[in-house]
Design a protein that fits this description.
This protein has about 260 residues and is an alpha+beta fold. The chain has 3 domains: about 80 residues, Glutaredoxin (3-Layer(aba) Sandwich), CATH 3.40.30; about 70 residues, no CATH class; about 90 residues, no CATH class. It has a 4-stranded mixed sheet with strand order 2-1-3-4. A hairpin with a 2-residue loop joins β3 and β4. The radius of gyration is 19 Å and the shape is globular. The two termini are about 20 Å apart.
Length: about 260
């Protein structure tokens, strides 16, 4: 069994997963690939979020990993799931909103026809990858999201806004290392610059995946403005949450990444 885990050193979920595998004595059974060091390998494999787990070349988990289920798979057990088709759309939206790239892209572009072409990601986050004969269920979900995507975007909007806001603050934390005040953030990132950041960060590498929208598009700017206002209004709370999260990635975890 060939097991690969795509990670990032600042990914809390990645650190928790590696710690879990180490405690279970299973870390030696996996190959860890740092997406910061090897971004183009990750792109080639279709990695959208970390951690992403591949078993024998197939994407099994993307972003959220069922630790015990994964341990069972690593131990050679066969895992089969039964999924209620009525739950698929919400499972997909949970998976999307667990990924910054996926959230940013779909929030800006509202294009489920294109997004659902990421078949491996869709099957991984919904659990369909562990369901036999899953193509029919995938097609059912694809049709639902193309027809009713706006309904689900509205339903999950608050979580999407929180995801994007938190990741913006996280990047400020990495860039500056100190807490800027709200006025400084507004000066460095006025609304139009923030909108550009969001478009570029939404799953784009160079021009691949990049969709630049004209800032005269009122609907787009209103959606971006919602996030911008939420971020500034909740800035202190978001900053403390991010700082606590990043501080929790211990020196031991940093050493592990350096040694992989």
């Amino acid at each position: 069994m060939n097991v690969e885990i795509f990670t990032h050193k600042n990914c809390t979920e990645c650190s928790l997963l590696l710690e879990f595998l180490e405690q279970k004595g299973l870390l030696g059974k996996v190959k860890v690939i740092d997406t910061e060091l090897y971004p183009f390998i990750a792109l080639e494999r279709g990695v959208i979020s970390t951690p992403s787990v591949f078993i024998d070349g197939k994407l099994i988990y993307a972003g959220t990993v069922d630790f015990e289920e994964f341990a069972s798979l690593l131990s050679g057990n066969k895992v089969e799931k039964r999924i209620d088709k009525e739950d698929l759309a919400d499972k997909l939206m949970y998976g999307i909103t667990d990924s910054f790239a996926a959230t940013a892209w779909i929030y800006v572009n509202r294009d489920f026809d294109s997004f659902m072409a990421q078949k491996d990601f869709v099957k991984a986050v919904t659990g369909l990858v562990l369901v036999e004969n899953n193509d029919e269920a995938y097609e059912y979900l694809r049709n639902i999201m193309i027809k009713e995507g706006e309904k689900y975007l509205s339903k999950w909007e608050e979580r999407m806004i929180r995801n994007i806001s938190s990741n913006f603050i996280r990047e400020l934390y990495w860039l500056y290392g100190i807490k800027l005040n709200v006025k400084e953030v507004m000066e460095k990132y006025p609304l139009e610059t923030f909108a550009h950041w969001l478009m570029v960060r939404g799953g784009a590498v160079g021009r691949v995946g990049l969709r630049i929208h004209n800032l005269t598009e009122k609907d787009l700017l209103e959606r971006v403005k919602k996030i911008y206002i939420f971020t500034l209004t909740n800035y202190d709370t978001l900053w403390e949450k991010v700082k606590k999260e990043q501080d929790a990635i211990s020196p031991k975890e940093a050493e592990r990444y350096l040694s992989l």
